[in-house]
Structure formats: C-alpha cells, structure tokens
Amino acid sequence: MATLIDSERWMPTAVLTIIVDSQLQEITMNKDQTKGRIEEAKGKVKEVAGKVVGNKDLELKGKTQGNSGKVQAAYGDLKADIKKSI
Fold first, then answer.
1. Which one of 17, 32, 54, 71 is most buried, counting C-beta atoms within 10 A?
2. Cα–Cα distances in Å, from 78 out to 17, 20, 40, 68, 75?
C-alpha cells in the first residue's frame, strides 16, 4: 500500500532501507574504536598467556597494551558521541 508524503509516493522498501541504514550506522565503529578494541583483546591474550606460563614481563606487557587499547577505544567513543550530537 502506498501513501502520499511530500508529493512523493512512499514505498515500504524505501522506508525499510532508511531504517536499516540508520541502524548500521549505529553499529559501525570508527577507526579508533576498532583499533582500540583490537589492542584491548591482544593485550588480554598476552596478559592471560603471561599468567599461564608464569612470565611476569609478558603479563605486564599485556596489561599495558590492554590499557592503551582502552584509551584509544574511549577516544573513538568520544569522537562518535560528538559526531552524533552534531
């Protein structure tokens, strides 16, 4: 069923496309968010591996890398929040 909105025909598929596109934009992450979360994961793997094998240096490097990733991801989150508010 089609209705008239602003002198144009409204088609359900067009509205569905708009809804899907807007939801995908909320799901996508910017570069800093992606890289930060990857670094967090890599750091966690190193930290756990260091604990398992008893290597304190590897464990410390993992914690440092994970914290660095958290900072980068938080920066990306901030950028995304600013972009949304504009």
1. 32
2. 28, 24, 17, 15, 5
d(CA 54, CA 68): 23
Q: Which tokens is 78 given? A: 């901030």
Mean pLDDT by 10 residues, the chain (86 residues): 50 51 66 96 97 97 97 96 91
> Is 66 in contact with 44 (CB distance < 8 Å)?
yes
Q: Can you give the pTM of this predicted structure?
A: 0.66
Tokens of 17: 């496309």
- Spatial CA neighbour of 37 closest among 80, 5, 84, 82: 80
